[in-house]
Amino acid sequence: MTALLDSWTCPPDSAATTTLLRIVDPGPLTTTQDAGRTGLAHLGIGASGPADRSAAALANRLVGNPEGAPLLENVMGGLTVAASSSRYVSVTGAPAEVRVDGRIVSEPQRLYLHAGQRLSIARPPWGVRVYVAVAGGLACRGVFGSCSTDSLSGLGPPALRAGDELEVGAVVSDPPSARLELTGTSLPTGVIGLRFRWGPRHSLFSTTDMRTLTATTWSVGVDSNRVGVRLSGPALSIGAVNLPSEGMPLGAIQVPPSGQPIVFLADHPVTGGYPVIGVVTEPDLDLLAQMPPGARVSFSAMTGA
Question: Carboxyltransferase domain: from which residue to which, for each copy (predicted)?
Answer without folding.
Answer: 42-305
